[in-house]
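Folding problem:
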Amino acid sequence: MLNPQNLKKVILILLALVIVVGSVGYFFYQRNIFGQDRVRFEITAPENVEAGEEVDYVVRYRNNSDVRLEEVVLVFEYPENTVPIEEEDLGEDIKRRGEYRREVTVGELNPGEGKATTFTARLFGKEGSSFESSAWIRYVPKNLAARYESKREHVAIIEKVPISFNFQVPTTVDPDREASFRLRFSSEIDYPLTDLEVRLTYPGNFHFIRSAPKVEGEGKDQWSWSVLNKGDDGTIDIDGVLKGNPGDAKIFNATLGVWVGDNFITLKEASRGTSISKSDLLLDMQVNGKDDYVADAGELLHYEIFFRNIGKETLEELFLLVDLDGDTLNLDQVEPREGRFQEDRGVIIWSHTFDYTLLSLKENEEGRVEFWARVREDLPHNPEIKVKASMERAEKTLESRVNTRLSLDQKVIRKGSPFEEIGPFPFEKEEVSTYAVKWEIKNHFNSVRNAVISVRLPEGARITGEKEPDDYSLSFNSSLREVTLDIENIYAGEELEVFFEVEIEPEEDLEDEDMLVYEAEMEAQDRRTDNIITTIGPAVFLDQVLEISN
């Protein structure tokens, strides 16, 4: 039995315990009074996407409680190596926190109120790549001191990369002999790919000779494209020599990707193997004495094919076949010399029954055949003449590019030009009159750049500055009386019409044989062959002035 004094002490201790336990309980009660189920919070976005696809991340949040939420902040983090699609100025409520994180100041969220914020990005990666995005929402329930936070994550996987990327590599190559390899790619992505880069890993004992496009750098293994649009394609042609023993496997590996910021993102990979040939024949071919000759439309070409027995055994009763490209060569004008030409197949055949060097070819013995063929006048765009020679198991393909052809015609017009007032006609001595010059320009085969057209005007003539189209650069050298037009690019097959107005004050009466524009000269650089192409536009005399319909 406790005395009153001890009982009072026990009561005080119990009261203190109740206060402490109550305070702790109230604290945890306050911390847990608001569960995650009180705020609905989710990220909605597709789980499977294509590379380069524009993806909308919709972050939805809703207050399902009976208490107003205050100091609400939404944080969203894009996946790495993506390109956020957003305005430069995000507004007052959205802040950039680094390259990929965005912070949205929501403010207050009343009971039952819901909102959604969309973040858009373009995803780049190879097939099977995963991209994790994250979102957080932070808030303080009204009349509570505790701050709450919820987090959600979303993972998207690239299931398809709509890019074609592959090698064209011969099945076998002859050792110590130049061979050609091709890498082709095209895009079906609904978005222009910028800062594109192709990286190539060569097999061992590969000696690089040249490539088209040209490549810089020590390794000769990286090519850059500023932009690749949907439907565009690209080609990398590489010539080199592989060394090795007969039957050795040689593997080429390539990677295609884009730069996103400072990171190189792989989109597609390709591998292709070849092996060192076991053929005992070595074939080589030249056109007009070169293996890199650039031809012109309509030109007669002289082909020579050289063959040598590099084996130990004598080769007997040989046949040599040459396939001609009928799209670029005129099969009606082939001179096969000792060969037999089958025009329907586009094939020339040399047989040991007609050429004694093919009857027996001893070790290290050489032979040669020749033929002539004319380049077609009606060539496709970006023409390339392909001639393939085959003998036993040896093959040799010679590809020759063709210069474009430029056409320039000029006319003087007295009526029907795009200019409102020209004339009067006929011209009179010391009387000012105007006339229009029309240039008709055509680029036939390959795209060209840096085109320049120049023409002299007669005494007393100068340009007025009127021209059509207006965006071309037209200048006049008064001391030479020379008009110059600069055109940055003219694409393959493109036809242009350019008008400019000339003012003339003849010092003497003009006769029919007097020129109103002298012979015009045009030059441009062929983008495919790098050669300078020129053409002439004939002079126009007074009696050749035209009236045309608008």
